[in-house]
Amino acid sequence: MINLKKKIKNKEVTFGSWMNIGNAYIAEIMVQAGFDWIVIDMEHTAITYEDQQRLIQTIELAGSIPLVRVDSNNEVSIKKALDAGAHGIIVPMINNESDALRAVSYTYYPPRGIRGVGLSRAQKYGFGFDAYKKWLKSECVVIAQIESVKALDELEKILTVEGIDGFIIGPYDLSASIGYPGEYDRKEVADALSKVEAISDRINATKGYHVVNVENNKVENLVRSGYTFIALGVDEIFLGSACRVAIENSKKIGGK
Known about the structure:
By secondary structure, the chain is α/β, with parallel strands linked by helices. The protein contains eleven helices and eight strands. It has one domain: Phosphoenolpyruvate-binding domains (TIM Barrel). The chain is globular and about 65 Å long. It starts with a helix and ends with a helix.
């Protein structure tokens, strides 16, 4: 299994994907497809904490890196995700340095952070706590989600917080914060992205982006622009798109 934190630090391109459906079969299918990491979305889905742990187990045992997009920058949510065995977290709506500092503090044990100590799956149910402490320092990933114009003026401060490994753009929310929800190809949104890129390139931060509807030219342009932490699609869109293609093609044949 790859050391994702090291790859992020070294600006090596990795491709992950996103899970909105809390089903272990789907998780295993996605890992077998070859994604480097899979994000379990706890913010906008009906996935429960019990589902979260089962999905983490499945993704990890199938050979990929399980990450969790927590529901908010919340101490308990972050602690539960990491105790369940997530290799890292994506924290939504990081808008300023204070938000970034809180996310890092919720991730790490004292003295670096304020995370409470539990003995769960990550710590081998009490039989691997010392090993987990070492792993936490060297491999746990914290990604700030940049999805609001409010974050742009604070971006350099956010990305230079020790413990923030990189960021990922949430295109729908970023476009919404500008006043054009879902219209992320508009000039206004492109200008905001250009600002993000200029700042992050100046401070050599790791850039990430979620390509919700996968288009090869979009992915190619991102890689050329220096994005290295790239999420491709969402399980429900992969499924829905395949269903639509199948039925549309079949109806064309049936109508002849």
